[in-house]
Amino acid sequence: MQVHQIPIFKDWVPEWLARAVIFAVLLNSILGFALYYNNPESTVGYYGIEPSDVQYSVVVMYASVVSFLALDFRIIKYFTTRKYLLIGLALNAVTYVICFYTKNWILFLICRFVQGAVCALFCNIVLNLIFPRLHSGRSRVIGYTIFYGSLQVSIPVCGIYCSYVLYYFNFNWLFYGLIILSLPVLFAVLLTMNSKSRIHKKIPLYYLDLTGYFFYTVFCLLAGYILVYGQQLNWFENQLIWLLTAAGIILLVLFAVRENRLKRPLINLEILKAKNFVTGLFLLFAFYIFKGTSGFTYGYIESILGVDPLNIIPIWVFTIVVTIISMFITSRFILTGTPLIRIVIVGFFILALFYIYMLCFVSNTGETNDFIIPTCLFAIASGVVFVPAVAFTVSSAPPKIAFNASFIGIFARFLGFCTSIAINNYVQLYTKATVYEKVRESMTELNPQLDLTLQNIQNTYINQGSDFIAGKNASGMYLKTLIREQILARSIRDYYEIMLVSVSVVIILLILMPGLNKVVIRLRKGSLPY
Predict the structure, then answer these.
(1) Which of 43, 78, 159, 341 could share a disulfide with 38, CB 3.0–4.6 Å?
(2) Distances 249 to 54, 213, 216, 220 between C-alpha atoms, Å
(3) What is the CA radius of gyration of the chain?
(4) What is the 3-state secondary structure (H, E, C) of 146-198?
(5) Which residues of 32-67 are buried (b: 16+ CB within 10 A; e: fewer)?
(6) Each residue of 457-511: pLDDT tens digit?
(7) Is the separation of the CB atoms in 355 and 288 below 8 Å?
(8) Considering only CA atoms, which of 64, 76, 75, 22 is closest in space to residue 410?
(9) What tens digit of pLDDT does each residue of 174-230 get?
(10) 175 Cβ contact partners less than 8 Å away, ≥ 6 residues apart
(11) How many whole angstroms separate alpha carbon 443 and alpha carbon 451?
């Protein structure tokens, strides 16, 4: 007899194997989600696109996950579990094959959208398999920790996978590898699961809010497009941004009006009337803005320090280990009854330490080992903030409609992720332009230090065996490279200064806001994470 009441797995399947299959399905879904997040240059080179296009491809998949997760709440109750998983695996395989053979960018975006829906499908099934097996509140806290720990380590795991594959093969071979990795999952599902078992009692798909799903999906795609391409199009100086913003507002109003009138809405918006729930959404939104700064650290190590992606793998390994340890330690504090908001404040304080460390060490020189400590600080902060913030948000929701916290919570994370891209694009351009203007003002022919610096660089090349002309040309190129690295390093420091001020403001607000410590953790059996 299985731990849960519905025999999803066959009688001969032991509990450890059932959990291993569930985890394999989860890993398969998140591996495709965070696939090339840390290696955008390879995508740019393969498809001949702009970096902002790569960012939007990630947003497209994320938007698909956000919108389909709400719709799937009903669909999952119609299909048998094994059949639904097999449909998802088949859709993934087809899109992976298309991505492997095509260089058409529009077709690639369509495939990523489908993969996002499949990712939501997998996560929904996994969550419905995990949490009915956890009967006590203690077990559900551990379940939350395992699920979110998997999400947190997905980016470094994908970074390791991509580094190895891209070192030997082209970008499209990433999808070939995913096809191979999906085969063991396919065989495990076929071998261990009953063909006629289901998680919920079968419910027909009548009154399925497809119109609301359409409004919600298009709104997410439009919001992502505006935030990703806004800086490139000069924001509201461009007519397209005005049109997309107007369309987004209209869609949002139509969606809200429709959901409030329906008996079976896609998302019950009544949950937004809970004050502390909105505070929890703010925590998730802010956390994902700060979480987006990790890309600057890895970009700095690769671009300025010139470290090969394969040599960054030790940092990713440290990040994975530290994230797992910090999340399980945090779960122990939650179980002892420590106020959730206090844990979140500690996490944001550790994040502030990360920014301070980076401000002290960012320059155009350094060693990879120097950045193990800050990346570990960032991993600790992520592990400390994430689960308590989610638990705080879920516990603040009214019990009757608490399941809607999943749908709105993941939207808050999505919006924070897109906002972090917009802030990164704007601040990076602004700080680079500011630093470049200061450098340009000082680097003139009237500055005697310029000629002296060029002469010293030229002498260095001549001493190494270059002739006079080659040394002169090389000195100019070297100086340009050095200036570009200095500008990038300075802009990164300026960006971290802004983030340090921002996280300090968040900490102060959380300390001053009354009543947050009174929120008691309530992880109900029907409440699934997001």
Answers:
(1) 159
(2) 25, 16, 11, 11
(3) 25
(4) HHHHHHHHHHHHHHHHHHHHHHHCCCCHHHHHHHHHHHHHHHHHHHHECCCCC
(5) bbbbbbbbbbbbbebbebeebbbbbbbbbbbbbbbb
(6) 767 767 776 666 676 667 677 777 777 777 777 777 888 888 899 999 999 988 8
(7) no
(8) 64
(9) 899 999 989 999 999 999 998 888 877 887 777 788 999 999 999 999 999 999 999
(10) 96, 97, 99, 100
(11) 10
What pLDDT is stored for residue 262 in this prediction?
86
- Alpha carbon separation from 22 to 26, 185, 192, 222 (Å, rounded): 6, 9, 11, 34
pLDDT, position 268: 87
DSSP string, 247-291: HHHHHHHHHHHHHHH-SS-SS-GGGGG-HHHHHHHHHHHHHHHHH
pLDDT score, position 212: 92
**Could you give the CA distance from residue 357 to residue 374 in angstroms, rounded to a whole number?**
6
Distance from C-alpha of 19 to C-alpha of 353, rounded to nearest angstrom: 37
* Three-class DSSP category at 36: coil
Please write the tens of the pLDDT for every residue from 295-310: 777 777 776 677 777 7
Give the DSSP H or E segment for 463.
helix 448-463
Residue 104: left (phi > 0), alpha (psi -120 to 50), or beta? Answer: beta
Cα angle 493, 230, 51; round to 5: 65
CA distance 307 to 394: 42
Longest dimension (CA), the chain: 85
Crossing angle of helices 51-75 and 210-229, in 10° steps, is: 160
